[in-house]
Design brief:
This protein has 285 residues and is an alpha/beta fold. The chain is built from ten helices and eleven strands. The strands form three sheets. The chain has a six-stranded parallel β-sheet with strand order 1-11-8-7-5-6. The chain has a three-stranded parallel β-sheet with strand order 3-2-4, with helices on both faces. Strand 2, helix 2 and strand 3 form a beta-alpha-beta unit. Helix 6 packs across helix 7 and helix 6 crosses helix 10. The longest helix has 23 residues.
């Protein structure tokens, strides 16, 4: 039976580290850390995320600046705000909550954020830096996954690592991070043939495909570390991941639950990125 990887506990440890360093740098260097969060429209899930980010900022000692814009906000108005935030010395990190309304080009907005304040690590410059292994910021979810794997004591070197999902936000950067830790990485997706066979070879399996209970226990190698990035809501209202937990738990050595696994890590790593940005902008790193 697998050991449960407690994302709440690991994320609390990350936030405690950030809070401690933030307090020290405020005391010793007068450093203040600020995160600007921009939300456009009234997407309920986005509102929950934004509120959680504000709470996390408060918990670690950051100043948070929220910009809640109407659904009808034009792309030009949003770009103008991003440019103002790029120049605002109080703001160390800028996060534009996705998804944006359909009339706004997400790529144009992401590209407008200063790479030095891009704490989501979505800007093409930061994506390129991740590819070559010379980065300041990591995308928050993949970075959180790496911290969870590390918490199990697993050495990634030489391990067969399978990532299911190829999104720019999780799958692709996740594969790069595992590769940089000397894992042997296979990326799978909806067109992959012999998926079960590939999964059964995985010492570390990271699933981010967005399909409820897609990976079942008979697809998991005995003793594998299983990280479930999925967050799906079933017809009965219950949350579940991309991995069918009950059958997977019987095969894995370590497994993340949903909820309470990867989810809490994303905001914790955002706090870590924002502190890094503040230190770099102050010439402390």
């Amino acid at each position: 039976m697998a050991q449960i990887i407690d994302g709440k506990a690991v994320s609390a440890a990350v936030k405690a580290e950030v809070a401690e360093e933030t307090a020290r740098l405020r005391e010793e260097k007068g450093l203040k850390v600020g995160l600007a969060v921009v939300i456009v429209g009234n997407n309920p899930a986005s509102r929950v995320y934004v509120n959680n980010k504000k709470k996390a900022c408060e918990a670690v000692g950051f100043q948070s600046y929220e910009y809640a814009l109407e659904e009808s906000t034009t792309q030009e108005q949003l770009l103008d705000l991003v440019n103002v935030l790029n120049r605002d010395s109080r703001v160390n990190g800028i996060l534009v909550q996705l998804p944006l309304p359909g009339h706004i080009d997400e790529k144009a907005i992401i590209n407008a954020i200063s790479p030095d304040k891009d704490v989501d690590a979505f800007h093409p410059i930061n994506v390129g830096r991740i590819m070559i292994g010379d980065y300041s910021f990591l995308p928050c979810t993949p970075a959180g996954v790496m911290r969870l794997i590390e918490s199990t004591g697993t050495d990634i070197t030489g391990k067969q690592c399978v990532v299911i999902g190829r999104s720019n936000i999780v799958g692709k950067p996740q594969a790069m991070l595992l590769l940089q830790k000397n894992g042997t990485v296979t990326i799978c997706h909806s067109k992959t043939k012999n998926l079960k066979e590939i999964c059964l070879g995985a010492d570390i399996l990271v699933v981010a495909i967005g399909r409820a209970n897609f990976i079942t226990g008979d697809m998991i190698k005995e003793g594998a570390v299983v990280i479930d990035v999925g967050m799906n809501r079933l017809d009965n209202g219950k949350l579940c991941g991309d991995v069918e937990f009950e059958s997977a738990e019987k095969r894995a050595s370590f497994i993340t639950p949903v909820p309470g696994g990867v989810g809490p890590m994303t905001i914790a790593m955002l706090m870590k990125n924002t502190l890094t940005a503040a230190k770099q902008q102050a010439g402390l790193e």
